Amino acid sequence: MTNPVVENAKNLAVSEPITPQPWLVVIDPQNIFAASDSAWGSPFFAAAMPQITRLAEAFGERVLVTRWMPTADRSTSWGAYFADWPFADQPADDPLFSLVPDAATLSPHPTLDLPTFGKWGPELEAIVGHGAHVVLAGVSTDCCVISTALAGADAGAYVTVAADACAGSTAENHAAALHVMGLYPPQITISDAATVLASR
């Protein structure tokens, strides 16, 4: 005679795992990376921003926006970095580090402000959860986006990169970063905004 409780447990064990809804993480949509007169301004940011907005509208409350802040310890290699880029060696409240106007209302949550290229870490994981699925967008593809994606994959996250919602420093660097991230399936998937939206 079969035990219905045991049989039900067996069925649950072989069923598909419940996948949490993904989070959208918009990396560093700040003036320093968007303005045409900034040494770090991406010429592709304006094209990426409408895709970012579309994604954010669909993700609703599950949107986080990050900011890169110039607060790293200057006694480390960051000191040499800021010596090479003195224009960015400014107080954290400088308008350079403010969000672009179109990004100010993307998320209901406070910005996640970190002094590192990659934004994956305990602060981000505490919000999205361990082993979460995150969709990355933002700037720049070849610096802060790729640094976040690789660290997220190492931490066990499922990372989808919405390529057309990312802006690289150059077209070549954008393509190169996507190529590198594309070498990490199934942890990292390269996609686009339309595909991400269609899968929701």
Q: What's the story with the biggest beta sheet? A: 6 strands, parallel
- Termini separation (Å)? 43 Å
The chain-level structural class is: alpha/beta
What's the assembly state of these chains?
single chain
- Shape descriptor reads globular
Strand order of the largest sheet: 3-2-1-4-5-6
Determine the fraction of residues in helical runs and give it as a percent range.
Answer: 25-40%
Q: Based on DSSP secondary structure assignment, what is the total number of beta strands?
A: 6
Percent range for β-strand residues: 15-25%
* Stretches with pLDDT under 50, minimum 5 residues: 1-18
**Rg:** 19 Å
Mean pLDDT: 91
Could you spell the SSE succession in H and E letters? HEHHEHEHEHEHEH
Annotate the secondary structure layout.
Layout: H1 4-14, E1 23-27, H2 31-34, H3 45-59, E2 63-68, H4 77-84, E3 112-114, H5 122-128, E4 133-139, H6 141-154, E5 158-167, H7 171-181, E6 188-191, H8 193-198
Parallel strand pairs: 1-2, 1-4, 2-3, 4-5, 5-6
Helix pairs in contact: 6-7
